[in-house]
């Protein structure tokens, strides 16, 4: 447990260093966010000097690193507000979106995997596979733009921007309507991979000798499916936890397309204008959050799998 925690913190800081190096050598400047004329090099250099951006790469990262160790993530170059305050304001929206999509994706993957096994090699099984891999073939931002075009512009049945309408911030149903399209895009763009994992785990469990013995004892098929599902959930949940970071990055992309007020828009804006404190803090929190979800999935897998319960969880 302690080793995992230390390793996760190390990976988080290492990720921030890689992000810092990429931003340092990328084009652009935070000075341009204030609509400074790109030809006014002296003014740009003066702004960068005031922010400490004229210092060498390692010195800049060292300053941020030691501040982060003390719990100070600094202020955003763009807004001048505390980085921690801005993250707190938007983290709830991102967590609601990502967790809603992840839970729905998990339930849908398991259900379709069981349905595909029940109707194995049938038209239903082939249709599920065909649709899932066709959605997977489209990048998330392309699928999001397609849904915006269909549901928001042509049919005009669902909202396509923001987390809620103006004046309806506390309206649960209004916020739920704004969640539908982003959640749908996240689920459909990841469904093929998760469905494949779920199907492989379930098919492998069905091929076990103890399952064949259950059929030989004329046990009810509903009970057999329940036992198979219980034994298959452990590796499925472990895979979901291991994919937390990539799923979170996909969430950030979808948020930017739908102008969803989460961490995604903050991250892309900070990268675009080289807002180092905000970008590094978001990368750091994203890696730690993904590590937490991975650990949580391991705990659930240990609880659900009777064979793992015999081992000491460390």
TrEMBL record:
Residue ranges crossing the lipid bilayer per the database entry: 95-115, 127-158, 178-198, 236-260, 280-304
One Pfam family it belongs to: BPD_transp_1
Domain ABC transmembrane type-1, residue spans: 91-297
InterPro entries reported for this sequence: BPD_transp_1_N, MetI-like, MetI-like_sf
UniProt GO cellular component terms: plasma membrane
Family according to the record: Belongs to the binding-protein-dependent transport system permease family.
Lineage, opening ranks: Bacteria, Pseudomonadati, Campylobacterota, Epsilonproteobacteria, Campylobacterales
Protein name: ABC transporter permease
Keyword set, alphabetical order: Cell membrane, Membrane, Transmembrane, Transmembrane helix, Transport
Gene Ontology BP term (one): transmembrane transport
Recorded topology in the membrane: Multi-pass membrane protein
